[in-house]
Task: structure prediction
Amino acid sequence: MTDSHTLPPRQLFAGHLVDIEHRRIFDAEITVSGDTITDIRPTDPLPHDAPYLLPGFTDAHIHIESSMMTPCNFARVAVRHGVVNAVCDPHEITNVLGVKGIDFMIDNARHSRFNFYFGLPSCVPSSSLETAGAAIDAAQTRELIRRDDLHFLAEMMNYPGVLFNDSEVMGKIAAAREAGKPVDGHAPGVMGEELQRYAAAGISTDHECSTPEEARQRIACGMKVIVREGSAARNFDALCPIIGESPHEVMLCSDDKHPDDLLRGHIDALVRRGVERGIGVWEMLQAACTTPQQHYRLPSSLLRKGDRATFIAVDNLRDLNITTTVIDGCVVYTREQGVIEQALTPGTPSTECPNHFEARPITEADLSTPLTDGRVKVIVAFDGELYTRCEELPVERLTSPEIQKIMVYNRYGNGRPQVGFIKGFHLSHGAIGATIAHDSHNIVAIGASDSDMVAMVNALIAARGGVGVTSEGRAEVLPLPIAGLMSQESAEEIARRYGRLDALAKQLGCTMQSPFITMAFMALPVIPELKITDKGLVDVLKFDFTELVSR
Amino acid sequence: MTDSHTLPPRQLFAGHLVDIEHRRIFDAEITVSGDTITDIRPTDPLPHDAPYLLPGFTDAHIHIESSMMTPCNFARVAVRHGVVNAVCDPHEITNVLGVKGIDFMIDNARHSRFNFYFGLPSCVPSSSLETAGAAIDAAQTRELIRRDDLHFLAEMMNYPGVLFNDSEVMGKIAAAREAGKPVDGHAPGVMGEELQRYAAAGISTDHECSTPEEARQRIACGMKVIVREGSAARNFDALCPIIGESPHEVMLCSDDKHPDDLLRGHIDALVRRGVERGIGVWEMLQAACTTPQQHYRLPSSLLRKGDRATFIAVDNLRDLNITTTVIDGCVVYTREQGVIEQALTPGTPSTECPNHFEARPITEADLSTPLTDGRVKVIVAFDGELYTRCEELPVERLTSPEIQKIMVYNRYGNGRPQVGFIKGFHLSHGAIGATIAHDSHNIVAIGASDSDMVAMVNALIAARGGVGVTSEGRAEVLPLPIAGLMSQESAEEIARRYGRLDALAKQLGCTMQSPFITMAFMALPVIPELKITDKGLVDVLKFDFTELVSR
Result:
């Protein structure tokens, strides 16, 4: 998405042209006039070390917010990996800021030549068991989905609502369908007859599959499967065979991806990995380039005459090292020069940091839990998993070194922290905290001492959002002043500071591989079994609040 | 090929099994009893970093002699690259030693567990325009082709003989067909109706194609195409698309490959390169593993129950790093341990060096060319090409620094060196020489001074064969005491010494990229235009001798 800027008048690009549709490669010279491919001419054989030209990659489902970067900064990393399109669901910032969050993302993205395709979040808030910063109902959805800059209805995660024919949910879906815009799904584990009904409601994708059988059932129902490989959920290896079987029904996505991971690789890394696992490169390119363009009806950029002049050059189809990225006729990256800043980001995005942060500092008294007897429900967290188990322990066992306090505190208004107990993080001292806590992004903290938890929470409040670690009363915070989710800093800077916090958390004794990611899901009351929100402890299986102490 | 040795009783190998026939990969445990796969059992999912098990690679056409190594030493390099079978034509040594040369190769190969499949050379000698060390006629062919250790009739390069129905040529082909053994071809540039007649004669392969059109015509005639990538002729890049189109009709070979090249990569490198160029990995594996086993009816080693336990393990199908090579149930190579010598070479091959070398030392008088007037025919050689052009120059121009003397000297008996002039090597001083000179392997030398040429030739005679460089009267020779073609040394040692000679030749001013390879073809009178043999200067287009001086 970009404003009109002066484009070079006419350019020629020569190479081995990769025609995914016909599965052929031919030597050609491409004429680009403005932002369009105006001619493709076969040439005499080029040297074998000439570049291979192919359509750029599409990330078919991503919450840019999880990168902690602005869209403009995200693009600066993506183009190095040959990614030129991102199908974006601004679900996180919208749960904090409502439509103002969507508009911030779109406005920032407008200053980058990278192609962002935003959808309208369908689940704001995600549930009634927590306090979000905004709400969008079916009536507003009907208005908003008509906007030209919102291309689909995003991630309908309320699948019970679909199956039980909830009028709000069905109203949102109907609005999207009437506007002629696709509806994205999210239905982990839904199978058989229920899945058929979910698909029949008009939901055409799912990126939550984790087994080949789930994926095959979705494809049989006419849905497309978006194979996800993010920083938290990683389904690529398990779903690899599906890409080989049905490349026209499969896309690739990262969903949630941290800056350090993004710097290492993006969709390009998945194409390579597929080939490692025996999937044909044509099938991988179909899923990485063609299927998402067609499914989301993106402006055609498939290296045909008349297409947008958006493509990449690679050294060869095995190593897939990106040598050039071209978007809308502009070279935005070359291996030699790196990102070409004035081409990729011709505008000057605002440095404004919209936020929604009302919480007031807390004291140790706010965290006190005067328990005397009974059995206490403890959240048991597991490394690399989003689900938890509930374990009931006698009060006297809470002083065990394997149990810490967890706290969630409404950041949008008045209220008091909700306090529970958690096992699995193994903090021996200090505390960790963040304002990234799916999906309402209240303040979450886990700590070995009340004083460190208080210092942590108050430091996050002072920064108006962030991620942090506190040890012996001293807090270190990576500030995320945009909605408490994102920073104006570059990927490298965020990765550096985030990496430092990760190391500090491990110095506290934390044994989780990704402590902040796992913590961020402890407040999400839609994944079983025991979670905690700003409103209280939630028994997810009953979809209701529960008492901390069993009487 | 191997004598019976004690085999381990029963072994299990687990990995992602690559089933090329059905284009699927499944996790399995392979039971090997003795040299046979006795069971294949699907397992629970293995970790993604488990090895991929696939059939080993086959080099479908090679003259081992060009590696300058014995078969046993060749195998020590091949197995590192996952090559387990080689379809061998002992054409070079047979032109020197006759059947004794074939027997030497087979006897040496018998001491290695590597699978060598030898054919009977069809063209000994290659032509009547030079003196070879031996001759095998149709009657002898009829006897020899019945031998159990000769599996096919090799490389029928006398394609004019086939097209003109030469009785000797047709007799050899008929003998092979009656013995039920395939006949390999060699028909560069033969097209259309002539090609149909060549194929109809019963010739079923060609490894001399250099264009896709040649390859497609051969496949249309029912022949198989062996895509060649050797040290001299390199056709892989041009023929790549054919592998994608017709993997069941295509095999891969190296034909002639030097030790330094072999150390860098073999058939494994071609599979990688194919994937780089957009050919599917399944098509590459079909050509590298399956098609040659089927065409040459090799003992089946395709990872099926009942097959020979000959297979390889690789890290993944993109990087294709060979982690283990198993031949007939024995682990002969692992990435950690390298070649497992007692498993790969259980026998002790003879250190005998059979040879055929009668030439006596020469003097400067033997090279004198008392030319006074007229125009002299000069051989014009080109870097990387086997053909030459003829240029006629006035006698006085022969002293130009761009022209050197070339000499070919019969090594099999009495005779005198034949002397000509050559352009393209640019030696400013010294001489280079070798007893590798296709196809009769007489002594060839090129020099800037007669004294250096004499020193070169006499040093090669003293060594009873080799490759060498002489500068200021001092000769350095890599001795090749086996038939003047091969050494008992290892690949590394030959590569080191050959590399040194190559550098020395360049210090003499030689501008050819591979001086010895190009020189070796200056004596081959079947590739146009002007060549020189031990019998004299040859006008290849007239297939007859010609005078040095035009009168």
The mean pLDDT of chain A is 95. The CA atoms of residues 14 and 326 of chain A lie 13 Å apart. Chain A has 16 helices and 29 strands.
